[in-house]
From TrEMBL:
This is GMP synthase [glutamine-hydrolyzing]. Keywords: ATP-binding, Glutamine amidotransferase, GMP biosynthesis, Ligase, Nucleotide-binding, Purine biosynthesis. It comes from Bifidobacterium italicum. Homodimer. InterPro entries: Class_I_gatase-like (IPR029062), GATASE (IPR017926), GMP_synth_C (IPR001674), GMP_synth_GATase (IPR004739), GMP_synthase (IPR022955), GMPS_ATP_PPase_dom (IPR025777), NAD/GMP_synthase (IPR022310), Rossmann-like_a/b/a_fold (IPR014729). It is an enzyme of class 6 (ligase). Pathway: Purine metabolism; GMP biosynthesis; GMP from XMP (L-Gln route): step 1/1. Residues 192-390 form the GMPS ATP-PPase domain. Catalyzes the synthesis of GMP from XMP. NCBIfam families: guaA_Cterm, guaA_Nterm, PRK00074.1. The gene is guaA. Pfam families: GATase (PF00117), GMP_synt_C (PF00958), NAD_synthase (PF02540). It comes from the Bacteria.
Length: 516
């Protein structure tokens, strides 16, 4: 793999994505990982990310300079670049001029990581510290007003550094720089793609599972569908899917999953109606993390109960189901606090929301992937577009879209409003422009309205359309006013208890996509 060493940057995740976009597999590792451990992973290259610290301050995170002597190509970005310059004897100090945002870089030598660059490049910078003099053996490739050394390389040791952020879209030629480094300087082939991931995973799954029985919890979302199809490719009929109707699904969703999925894949499916069980357990609960934990636990207990039926139908009497497949993705892991050094933003139901005493071993074939990669795999596995391009829907479902206690009445109300919003967004042809559009019921909030000449005191519905690349960050979608107007009118007309429709115009961060 290419290792991306995280110095606490907002952008380390993005760097990992950009490397994958160049068809090279990458992994994030914390800067605290000993260099020997990094090298044991046999990295084909190492990228040092940016970070908030200043290298010359005491206690600033650094890296054992051994990393520069191992013969592995290294690219330092922003803070990582300064660490490289500092450790190798360059002059790094407070910048005479800090540069934040759009910055013109003068390219002095368009070679190496800047191969093919024009003599002026628009870049995106964020630094108050500068490399004034490159370490011995390095050639300066570019400079800016505030950064005497803005890019440098030592081709013989294959060490490279850049002050700006090539991983952000605001640096238009950033991806070229990353690909120059990976393919040109480090000589890594661009052969990591959906087909290879499938082959690798199929082999790994077969080896892990042997002749054991496996179940997969299907939620109706893209991730679990792709995970199931992938495992099915590996072990065929040893897999049974269990679709749990927890009563928190959207309108028509259960039927859709039961029919479309089976028709598309031919995988064995058992449907369990556990809605009463879930709603009972959620009675009186309005705290989001408590809801998530209850739902995560109930899922597992339901799978455990479904075990007997799975065994019977598989004709595998006397055996047990040993493995549970989950469609966990990389961002779920990171945001549930599972990534190294990450804090727990919320407990994604299939990671942080799981109980401790699970009887199954987990198979999570998508655990290192981003959503767009999962979609590419789904397509490669032959899943139809209706499944692959469905908007993400969280496992805890509408349970985390009712702010307040969850009741059957509130769920029915939200289901109606959500169906209207989905229908109108589809009709307007916006499905692929919008990453997803949660519809949220603020059940405990009331406001005064006038409907049919009468005073009403109802609850608001929030529309939360967002655009995103991987759900780690998101922007609110600029849905045309006419479409919003139609949705608003229809919801207030057709859902009697709703007298207000509001638009959430907050990006992530500072908000998250879901409200809970
Ligand atoms: P947030 O709200 O964290 O959401 O910005 C990021 C993405 O993850 C989805 N999401 C979940 N998916 N189980 C899931 O399978 C969960 O517990 C969960 N919580 C959030 C959310 O819909 C968005 O796509």
């Amino acid at each position: 793999p290419v290792l991306v060493v995280d110095f606490g940057a907002q952008y380390a995740q993005l760097i990992a994505r950009r490397v994958r976009e160049a068809n090279v597999y990458s992994e994030l590792v914390p800067h605290s990982m000993p260099v020997d451990e990094m090298l044991a992973k046999k990295p084909s290259a190492i990228i040092l990310s940016g970070g908030p610290a200043s290298v010359y301050e005491p206690g600033a995170p650094t890296i054992d300079p051994k990393v520069f002597e191992a013969g592995v190509p290294v690219l330092g970005i922003c803070y990582g670049f300064q660490v490289m310059a500092h450790e190798l004897g360059g002059d790094v100090d407070k910048a005479a001029l800090g540069e934040y945002g759009k910055t013109e870089a003068v390219v002095d030598d368009a070679s190496g990581i800047l191969d093919g660059s024009p003599s002026l490049q628009t870049t995106w910078m964020s630094h108050g510290v500068a490399v004034n003099k490159a370490p011995e053996g390095f050639e300066v490739l570019a400079h800016t007003e505030g950064a005497p050394v803005a890019a440098m390389e030592d081709g013989s040791r294959r060490l490279y550094g850049v002050q700006w952020h090539p991983e952000v879209r605001h640096t238009p030629l950033g991806q070229d720089l990353i690909e120059n480094f990976l393919h040109g300087c480090a000589g890594i082939p661009n052969d990591w793609n959906a087909k290879n991931i499938i082959d690798e995973q199929v082999e790994a799954i077969r080896e892990k599972v042997g002749d054991a029985q496996v179940i997969c919890g299907l939620s109706g979302g893209v991730d679990s569908a792709v995970a199931a199809a992938l495992v099915h490719r590996a072990i065929g009929d040893q897999l049974t899917c269990v679709f749990v109707d927890h009563g928190l699904l959207r309108k028509g969703e259960a039927e859709q999953v039961k029919h479309d999925f089976v028709a598309a894949t031919g995988i064995k499916l058992i449907a369990v109606d556990a809605s009463e069980d879930f709603l009972d357990a959620l009675k009186g609960v309005s705290d989001p993390e408590t809801k998530r934990k209850i739902i995560g636990e109930k899922f597992i207990r339901t799978f455990e109960k479904a075990q007997r039926q799975v065994i019977e139908e598989a004709g595998a009497q006397g055996k047990e189901v040993r493995f549970l497949v989950q469609g966990t993705l990389y961002p779920d892991v990171v945001e549930s606090g599972g990534g190294d050094g990450a804090s727990n933003i919320k407990s994604h139901h299939n990671v942080g929301g799981l109980p401790d005493d699970i009887k199954f071993e987990l198979i999570e074939p998508l655990r290192s992937l981003f959503k767009d990669e999962v979609r590419a795999i789904g397509t490669e596995l032959g899943l139809p577009d209706e499944i692959v391009w469905r908007q993400p829907f969280p496992g805890p479902g509408l349970g985390i879209r009712i702010i307040g206690e969850i009741t059957k009445e509130r769920l029915d109300l939200l289901r109606d409003a959500d169906a209207i919003a989905r229908e109108e967004l589809s009709k307007a042809g916006l499905d692929r422009d919008i990453w997803q559009c949660p519809v949220v019921l603020l059940a405990d909030v009331h406001s005064v309205g006038v409907q049919g000449d009468e005073r009403t005191y109802g609850s608001p519905i929030v529309l939360r359309p967002v655009s995103s690349e991987d759900a780690m960050t998101a922007d609110w979608s600029r849905v045309p006013y006419d479409v919003l107007a139609t949705i608003s009118t229809r919801i207030t007309n057709e859902c009697r208890q709703i007298n207000r429709v509001v638009l959430d115009c907050t990006s992530k961060p500072p908000a998250t996509i879901e409200w809970e």
